[in-house]
Amino acid sequence: MKTVLITGCSSGFGLETAKYFLEHDWNVIATMRTPREDVLPRSDRLRVFALDVASAESIHRAVETAGPVDVLVNNAGIGLLKPLEGVSMESAREIFETNTLGTIAMTQAVLPQFRQRKSGVIVNVTSSLTQRPLPLLSVYTGSKAAVNAFTESLALELEQFNVRVRLVIPGRSPETRFGENARPRMQGGYPDAYAGLVNGVLSRMQQPDSGHVTYSRDVAEAVWRAATDPSAPMRIPAGADAVAAATASSR
Is 140 a catalytic residue? Predict the structure, then answer.
């Protein structure tokens, strides 16, 4: 029976992915900054750990407690929606510390066991914004685009150890808490010259969805494919809008 360790499982993509692997009879280690076992079904194949991917000590403790794992899913992330001129360097560092460096640190922490066993899979969840950029998201998109490049390069150096590395690239999902967790970092000023752009973007975000969106189940299925199908491509779009963005970018 195989074991998957998933970061960012308190809601959204991570939560649905944990449920999906449990449904398919895997051992699941679901990690969250603030552990909540009530969000997942009870199972003797489930363990819920505290993990802050921005903390080296927290990563070390979680990986040591987890023991051997077969698949690592780097899903934890935070959002930021703001003109660059209004983004403090503290906020920018926070985004990269979680989204980019957290992914790198978690990967680095599990690599020794994968290399020694000559098996293992790393799945990094990013965003279709890296293929179809939008305004007010430059820092967030930059943090995710960095993970794309990191993943594709890492995959080449780990081939010799039979360790696979893949990307799952979701689109926009109304089911996630992106807006909620981004809101605290949206506070504060920015030049008045951006007011029209900000109001326009926020207005469009509040309009009813066209149907071309990503659902958490789409992402869970894509992660499952990345984890279990050796022939899966490097980049796996998840969600109708992500598939459309990937098709457009390949033309």
Answer: yes
